[in-house]
Amino acid sequence: YSINDNPGVPEAIKPILPGAALTVKLFANLGAGNHTLTLTADADNAVTEIDETNNGKTLSFSTIAPDLMVKSITWSPEKFAAGENVTITVEVENQGRTRAANTRVELRLGGASLGYAEIEEVVVGTPVKRNFIWTAVPGIHEINGIIDVDGLVLESNEANNTTITTLSLEVPVLSKKPTKISTAGAPDKGFLESSWWLILLAAAVLGGAAFYLALKAVRKS
User: Fold this and answer.
1) What is the pLDDT confidence band of residue 194, given thresholds at 50, 70 and 90?
2) Residue 59: what pLDDT?
3) Which of 163, 162, 148, 153 is nearest to 33 (CA)?
C-alpha cells in the first residue's frame, strides 16, 4: 500500500478461502488535510488468479482539522481625509471540521505590517473580528490580511489563509481661479481706432475756418 504516493511496509496476510474476506489494519501518522490511500492485493503476483485486473483500490479521505481563512476586510469610516485615523477590521472564519486555537492574524498595508492580533480560539461557524488602526495617507493601498501567519495551526487547507483588497484615498487637486484684470480707467482704443476719420474731418474743418479768418483780416488791412 501507499499513502500520498509514499510506499508503506507490505503486510503479509493469511490464506483466504473462496468467498471469504479478511480485514487488515494499517497504521500511519498523518497530518491534517487531504490524503490518498492506494491498496494492492497480491502485489508480488504470487497468486495465479482468474482476474488480475481487480487487485487495486484507491481511497481519498480527509483528516479532521480546522480550516482558517480571512472572510473579509472592511474599514470605518468609509470616507476619510488624509491624517485621519481609520479602523480596519479583519474578519476570520473557520470553515473546517474542528476548532482552531492559539493563532494570530496580521494586517499589511502596501507591504508594511500594521501589526498582529492574537486569537485564542476560532470555532467552526463563528467568525472572529480583530481591529487595526491606520493613519490615512493619500494614494492607492493594497491591504493584505493573513491568518495563522506563523503556521502554528495544522489545517486541512493551508492555501486560503490570505485575503487581499484595495483601499484608496485620492490626492486633492487645488484649482486656481482665473485672475480678472480690471480695465477701469484705461483708454478705449477701440473708439480711437474706429473714429479716426471723424478726427481728421474735424481737423480739416477747424483748419479751413482759421484760414478763412486770416484771409479776411488781410483784406481789411
Assistant:
1) low
2) 86
3) 153
Which of 201 and 13 is assigned the larger pLDDT?
A: 13
Name the grid cell of 171. 490626492
Burial group, residue 154, by CB count within 10 angstroms (0-12, 13-18, 19+) = middle
pTM: 0.58
